[in-house]
């Protein structure tokens, strides 16, 4: 079939409409299963967070037809309500995957959207995986096209994530090319998400709203609702309105290039991704030196400006703020030798020793690191001890993804906070064999 090339948006719609499970590379399918597993672990533990509890109570009081499962909410609610909740709970713990060039969290918007649509419309595991892969490709490519300038003001996961959610939903629903085109056009006028929300509950709301808007876009298009045919690349479109740099070539190549979903990284630490490079350095140093944190005179960290602006101050008034505080994260890494969800507990947040160590940490900009962001995530660290010993290290990027066996352990650790051991293993095996599952209700009943 000859591919239509009327607009940038049409290129993306063509890709989604032609994406078929049987033509997907095996390694991309396998990776998508682990993306789903990784997201689900974060969502299960995220369900107990305050923002998740609030929004779950809200949708419960709203009532409505039982269509899709609220994870660990013990209920089914209308599709658009369920995906709002699941989008929030999958992101709030800050353990979901990310993409360096796109500066976004592809799984956070793609997976809850595809899962809710697939459950509601009785789709198979193969159709679910295909939708997930479609969403990843759209978010990674669009995020890369508009960044780094887009991220100066906008929360990419919310903005570009709306297009990705629409792509995932349209793929699972098997909409034709023209209706997918409309779905993307509608999504473009619903896309939103300000970086001013960071450190508050509303950051996760950006994600839930993107999921909800993406689903609504696809469902409206399915019914014949219309939208602009090139809100992506038009003269008054999304890219021109929200970015001063146009790298849309990577989006134009969506029908010609290899899949990019495997270039997304998995989270190693339970904190903002911009803390990762300095944390990697700290743990390298801790492996090489038996440091006594109380004997540290000062710690100097240099990194790119976005990381300095977002995470450079010590904040410990709540978990959301602390996860975006590099001094806090470095302090708990030095004291407790890890940065897991436990390091953001009430007791740790209020530990005076954490505050004392954090006061010795200074974060400043490295202009070269800023110039190379987001292609690189450079950081350097210098620790000066009371005995005048100086330890220094630097890196050009944070760690790549852990191997899949490490992800299975991560899932067990997170999921076991709310599921009994046998159910954790059952869910894990169902996810890793989801391509053989024709009825997703078999999975969802374990997650209510």
Automatic annotation (TrEMBL):
GO molecular function, one term: lyase activity
Annotated MmgE/PrpD C-terminal domain residues: 269-431
InterPro entries (UniProt xref): MmgE/PrpD_sf, MmgE/PrpD_sf_1, MmgE/PrpD_sf_2, MmgE_PrpD, MmgE_PrpD_C, MmgE_PrpD_N
MmgE/PrpD N-terminal domain segment(s): 11-247
Highest taxon, organism lineage: Bacteria
Protein family according to the UniProt entry: Belongs to the PrpD family.
Descriptive protein name: 2-methylcitrate dehydratase PrpD
């Amino acid at each position: 079939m000859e591919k239509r090339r009327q607009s940038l948006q049409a290129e993306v719609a063509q890709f989604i409409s032609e994406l078929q499970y049987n033509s997907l590379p095996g390694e991309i399918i396998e990776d998508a299963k682990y993306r789903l597993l990784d997201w689900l672990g974060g969502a299960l533990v995220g369900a107990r967070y305050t923002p998740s509890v609030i929004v779950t109570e809200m949708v419960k009081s709203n009532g409505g037809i039982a269509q899709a499962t609220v994870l660990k909410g013990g209920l089914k609610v209308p599709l658009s309500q369920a995906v709002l909740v699941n989008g929030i709970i999958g992101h709030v713990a800050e353990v979901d995957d990310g993409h360096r060039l796109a500066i976004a969290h592809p799984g956070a918007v793609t997976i809850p959207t595809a899962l809710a649509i697939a459950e509601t419309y009785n789709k198979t595991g193969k159709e679910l995986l295909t939708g997930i892969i479609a969403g990843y490709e759209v978010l990674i490519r669009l995020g890369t096209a508009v960044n780094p300038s887009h991220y100066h003001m906008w929360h990419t996961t919310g903005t570009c994530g709306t297009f990705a959610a629409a792509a995932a939903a349209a793929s699972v629903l098997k909409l034709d090319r023209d209706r997918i085109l409309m779905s993307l056009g509608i999504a473009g006028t619903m896309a939103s998400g300000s970086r001013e929300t960071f450190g508050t509950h509303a950051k996760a709301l950006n994600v839930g709203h993107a999921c909800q808007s993406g689903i609504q876009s696809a469902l409206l298009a399915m019914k014949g609702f219309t939208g602009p045919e090139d809100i992506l690349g038009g003269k008054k479109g999304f890219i021109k309105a929200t970015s001063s740099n146009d790298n849309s070539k990577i989006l134009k190549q969506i029908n010609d290039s290899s899949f990019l979903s495997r270039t997304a990284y998995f989270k190693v630490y339970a904190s903002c991704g911009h803390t990762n490079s300095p944390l990697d350095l700290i743990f390298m140093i801790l492996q090489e030196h038996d440091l006594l944190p109380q004997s540290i005179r000062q710690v100097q960290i240099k990194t790119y400006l976005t990381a300095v602006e977002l995470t450079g101050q010590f904040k410990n008034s709540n978990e959301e703020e602390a996860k975006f505080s590099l001094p806090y994260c470095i302090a708990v890494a030095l004291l407790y030798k890890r940065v897991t969800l436990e390091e953001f507990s009430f007791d740790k947040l209020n530990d005076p020793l954490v505050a004392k160590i954090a006061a010795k940490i200074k974060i400043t900009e490295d202009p070269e690191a800023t110039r190379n962001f987001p292609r690189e995530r450079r950081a350097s660290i210098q620790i000066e001890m009371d005995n005048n010993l100086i330890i220094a290290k630097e890196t050009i990027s944070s760690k790549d993804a852990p191997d899949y066996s490490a992800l299975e352990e991560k899932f067990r650790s997170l999921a076991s906070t709310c599921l009994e051991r046998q159910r954790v293993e059952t869910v894990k095996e169902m996810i890793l064999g989801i391509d053989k599952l024709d009825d997703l209700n078999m999975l969802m009943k374990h997650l209510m």
